[in-house]
Amino acid sequence: MKSTTNRLDRFISQNSPFSISDTRLLIAQKRILLDGHVAHSNQQKVTKFTYVELDGNCLQDNNPLYIMLNKPKGVVSATKDIKHSTVLDLIQHPQKNELHIVGRLDFNTTGLVLLTNDGAWSRKISLPETKLAKVYEVTLSKPLTEEYVAVFREGIYFGYEDITTKPACLEILSEYTARLSLVEGKYHQVKRMFGFFQNEVLELHRASVGNISLEGLEEGHSRLLTKKELMTC
Fold this sequence. Notes:
233 residues; alpha+beta; 4-stranded antiparallel sheet; 29% strand; elongated
């Protein structure tokens, strides 16, 4: 996602009658406040969520939004779709049209979907380097064996991209069900990993991302993330 960070002088020229060259004088006269503090340099960074005042007038007052949704089957992980309901259709928030999706789920995959208007946050939690575990509950068409556990732990080679998946933790719950923890999210990764054994995924549900869990959130419902949940991402 494109960065929304701007230099203060450019921001002032784009959002007020003053030019880039006027900004130095405005700063010297202490007429600009950033998040309540007097601006000190025309090169200060202004993000999408920096509160900006000029002569006591607000030029920008945006609040970051972090929302979790328990996605049902048959809902598209998109902001618009002419045929099907989208995740945005399920969210009740006056600023929902500002949101983008962090880690999409397939049409028939259920569970945790995160949405935000904060591009820096979504990039951070999507990076494999962040090592944020994503936990899935999986139902398979064929019985599971301990061989799956060992292979998933070693990583599986995807020839089409010439890559090997990072080690994943597979816990067998019953003959046909398992819990899988990943730190990456390649295209259709869960289905492709079980496809290595020619074992079809019948049901797939994302239960958590990091310490953000669906516990207590009914299917089709959404809520804002807590400060504690945000601190762990």
